[in-house]
Amino acid sequence: MKLRDALDWGKLAPLRLEAKMIADGVYAGAHRSVRRGAGVEFGGHRSYVPGDDLRFLDRHARMRHGVLLVREFETETDRALRLIVDASASMGYASEGAPRSKYAFAALLAAALGRVALSRGDRVALDFVAGEGTLPLPSSGGREAFERLSGHLENSEPEGGADDHAFERALAPTARHARRGAAVVLLSDLLDLPEGAPDLVAGLCAGGRAVVAVRVLDPAELSFPFRGPIALRSLEGDVFVETEADSVRSGYLEALAKLGASWEARLLQRGGRLVRASTADDPVEVVREILAALSGAGDRSAS
């Protein structure tokens, strides 16, 4: 898989990560930060809480209104992007006629999102769920960061299962290091994940992070086009089923829709978003949808 040849990268040039929330950052990207100091813009007031720096109390507001208000200021900083890519065995599936496997499509989306972020001066980190040859990429920026990101994605192969330990281990660096305003994107088929996976991902919304889960499925998984007697084997585990395709299609599609609705509801409850994608989709359009979802993530009032 050569990511560099899989996309017209020029189509990504107009795209950018939009920071809806004020971001805590220390690097020089193009987003707002709550850092305070000389030469920055006034960003409004908020109520004083114990522990605030008394130098930023607005004394005029106290004299006029009898309330303690703290002045806030904004400056330009980066919005870190953290990518979590599912490389478990089920992501290696590609039906007959499908343009690419689920992992290949997820890796392409991850590379594209990383390219958009890095082109604006933001930093990118990468973690994997399961997989063979997978190596995490610490948060980095600069000219060579895209080559490192692409190399990590290209050298990884889907393998193994996403058990509780593997999934929690993949999310742990983001939970520890992603600051307020960070953009977090999980790329996965959301199948065969631990029972508590939706709540773990939704929990990453804490601390002002923008979280989007991207469900990547094969066209055959979305439509179940099979006919007559079929034999189905799980790519994760030893499950083998022989059945009549026409008799189970409606139940399968209903269960798939229910799973997606459950993920979406749990994410929305915490301010996250769910994006649905097929490996047959235009990757640039999916990237646009992910960026739009990130710009709205964090707003719990949206439906």
Task: Summarize this entry quickly.
With about 300 residues, this protein is α/β, with parallel strands linked by helices.
Q: What is the topological layout?
A:
Elements (H helix, E strand, L loop, with lengths): L30 E3 L7 E7 L11 H7 L3 E9 L3 E6 L15 H18 L4 E6 L7 E4 L4 H10 L9 H14 L5 E6 L8 H7 L6 E8 L1 H5 L5 E5 L6 E5 H26 L2 E6 L4 H14 L7
Parallel strand pairs: 4-5, 4-7, 7-8, 8-11
Antiparallel strand pairs: 1-3, 2-3, 5-6, 9-10
Helix pairs in contact: 2-3, 2-8, 5-7
Structural class of the helices, strands and pairings?
alpha/beta
Major sheet details:
6 strands, mixed
Biggest sheet strand order reads: 6-5-4-7-8-11
Sketch the topology as an H/E string, one letter per element. EEHEEHEEHHEHEHEEHEH
Strand content: 15-25%
Distance between the termini: 37 Å
Describe this structure in words.
It is a single chain. This protein has 303 residues and is of the alpha/beta class. It has two domains: 234 residues, Rossmann fold (3-Layer(aba) Sandwich), CATH 3.40.50; 47 residues, no CATH class. The chain is 33% helix and 21% strand. The chain has eight helices and eleven strands. Helix 2 runs antiparallel to helix 3, helix 2 crosses helix 8 and helix 5 packs parallel to helix 7. It is globular, with a radius of gyration of 22 Å. The two termini are 37 Å apart.
